[in-house]
Amino acid sequence: METHAIFSTDPLTYTTFLMSHLRLTHPISGQPILPFLISTRNSSAAVAHLITIKNIKYMWVTEGPMQTIAKEAVNRLETEPPVILDFPTYRDLHTYDQALLNPPINIQNEVPMDQPALILHSSGICFSSHFKMVVNSTKFKGSTSFPKAITLTHRVLMEWTQAISELRKFSSPDQG
């Protein structure tokens, strides 16, 4: 499975791009791609560390300060650097061409639930207390100057989705 870093500051295109990458974790798409969400709050040294530990092949990076940090990170590497690609724009991702909106995809098999779906890292992440509990487990305890990569499976993402759905039921103003 090939790892692609996603390093962006634009929330709408970031989310759309992430969803497309999650689809590409399935082997039917050819070479499966594992998305690695890298926080824009990291230093170039931390980004270089993450590139190295997860053997990132490609980095999708937005223009501006993120390009600078990505290039500085690549310059710090002692191994072969990833290819830095321009992050798609809103216009690139949000088209109204019917042929592109509904591509003919034949999914024969379900995604194995214990297959990696996404990589996050331990710094710069703000999720639920359940996630903080997972991150603070003994596997991730200790303090270093660099973030630790955390690989999440499709099962974990489905469990989070279910938990969020349940929480919304209890916090909905329509529920009386």
Properties at a glance:
four-stranded parallel sheet; Rossmann fold; 17% strand; 7 helices; two-stranded antiparallel ribbon; alpha/beta; 176 residues
Write a brief structural summary.
The chain is of the alpha/beta class and 176 residues long.
Structure description:
The protein has 176 residues and is of the alpha/beta class. The protein has one domain (2-171): Rossmann fold (3-Layer(aba) Sandwich). Helix content is 39%, strand content 17%. The chain has helices spanning 11-23, 44-53, 65-76, 90-93, 98-101, 129-135, 154-171, and strands spanning 2-7, 33-37, 58-61, 83-86, 116-121, 149-153. A four-stranded parallel beta sheet has the order 2-1-3-4, with helices on both faces. It has a two-stranded antiparallel sheet with strand order 5-6. Helix 1 links the parallel strand 1 and strand 2. Helix 2 crosses helix 3 (65-76). It starts with a strand and ends in a 5-residue tail after the last helix. The model is unreliable at 124-142 (pLDDT under 50).
What is the element layout, followed by pairings?
Blueprint: E1 2-7, H1 11-23, E2 33-37, H2 44-53, E3 58-61, H3 65-76, E4 83-86, H4 90-93, H5 98-101, E5 116-121, H6 129-135, E6 149-153, H7 154-171
Parallel strand pairs: 1-2, 1-3, 3-4
Antiparallel strand pairs: 5-6
Helix pairs in contact: 2-3
Unreliable stretches (pLDDT < 50, length at least 5) are 124-142
Q: What's the SSE pattern?
A: EHEHEHEHHEHEH
Cross-sheet strand order for the largest sheet? 2-1-3-4
The total of helices stands at 7
Strand content: 15-25%
Mean pLDDT score, rounded? 78
Q: Terminal Cα separation, in Å? A: 47 Å
The radius of gyration is 18 Å
Largest sheet: 4 strands, parallel
CATH class category: Alpha Beta
Q: Approximately how much helix is present in the residues?
A: 25-40%
Q: How many beta strands in the DSSP annotation?
A: 6
Structural class: alpha/beta
Could you tell me the CATH topology label: Rossmann fold
Number of domains: 1
CATH architectural group: 3-Layer(aba) Sandwich
Morphology call = globular
